[in-house]
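Study both lines:
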Amino acid sequence: MTLKRRMLFAAFLAFGVIATSVVFLVQEYFGAVASQNVVRESLEPAADSARSLVSAQANASRALTDYTLLGTPSALERMITAVERMEVLAQQIQPPIAGSTDLTQLLTAVQASQRAWVSTGVEPITAAMESGRGKRARALTQASTTTAAYQAMTEDAQLLVTQIDRQRDSAADLAQGFTRLLGVVLLLAGVSATVLLAGLFLALRRWVLQPLASLQTDLKLATHEAGHEHVIAGVGPPEIALVAVDAESMRRSLVHEIDTAQAARQGLLQEAPVVSALAAAYAASPTIEIAGLSVFGTSQSAEGVMSGDWWDTVIRPNGTLGLVIADVSGHGAAPGVTAIQLRPLLHSGLRAGSSPDEILKVASTILFESDFFVTALVAVIDQHAGTITWANAGHEPALIVQGDKTASFCDPTGPLLSSLGGHWETRTQQFRPGTLLIAFTDGLVESRTAAGATFTTHDLSSFVRGCDAPVRVNAEEISQRVIARARERSVDWQRDDITLLAVARPL
């Protein structure tokens, strides 16, 4: 992942945290508001019933007074109905306020004071009226105990009404206050997110992108200018500046190596023109461009400019891609001459459309009187059929990595090429989009670390499968990475010739 994408990922992560916090707060807000609305809606009927209770108490008192003055049955009936309604209303208030201890206690006090008024005033007065003692009943109506009981009842009822209204209004105020708080928090979150993103973008541009662009420009100039003399300047933050310093150090070393190589090449051209011409002809492997495939090959000699390793590619008459990688035993000029003899024969066999096993059979005839033996892998890739067909004459098994990172090898299908002859078998495997083939000589996998460990085919497979898909389908890039990895861990890199050929089928 690029540094730019990492910074953007961090920005979006921060924005996600802010957004998540806001969403959580909104959820809490709606939960709180819903809870307060439930409280308010449940207290509304309780408040109405409490007011009706106060009215019923007043009606009961007036009906009792009318009954003592008039003695009519209708007044008695109104008084009894009012008292019964008082009890019913008290019971109606109880369920909505069950969750409030304070209101429940007040309701209990109201019910107790109502019973006290009934027992102290209502019952004695009605008993006196029923016995015909109207004067006694009127006296009881004006008695201090009756008046005090009625006053206590009405005060308790009014206090209950006041407390219910207060809690209902408190719930409404809390919901309104929470709404204002949510608005402020959302505004602050929006401003914070905007400032964060703007600051992150400016910091990314100033401290990372601009220094990287400057470093990229210097690297391009140092690469493409004649003589590679452009100096790479260290700019930007310390991390990027250190990279520029290392790049400048590498440029100076490369310029020195180029100067040395040019001097050596001039000496070779002046003193050994035949060897130089042979080396040029031997190294000439034309770059193949074929639709649907990415091809790259490279070869490095352990001694001088000639080696016994080589690779070759050719477009066959039917449009398929033929490829060869081979290794003559030993290294130096003599194996190089044998390679020069074999190479055109294998090339011609591929161009003529022969099968891989037939090509190996013909090639073995050249070695009937030779002291050398040769390992070779001949393969044909048909991108239209999605297959690879190969024959392997004792060569290192080529690695095939599919798009899903499953790996397999082009194992030997017969003996190596030598004066003893032999028989070879041709095998076929799928070569679908996203597949990579890496063929190599033993110089790659036999390089050793300081501890003596080789770069095994398993190490090669693990390294290639660990690369991203865009790298695996770029033949040149994956080849350079494999060689760089093997060379980095090796302490005897030039102990043998090294050749590598990669063919990838992009998605």
Observations:
- The mean pLDDT is 84.
- The two ends are 20 Å apart (CA to CA).
- The domain at 3-193 is CATH 1.20.120.1730 (Four Helix Bundle (Hemerythrin (Met), subunit A)).
- The CA atoms of residues 352 and 430 lie 23 Å apart.
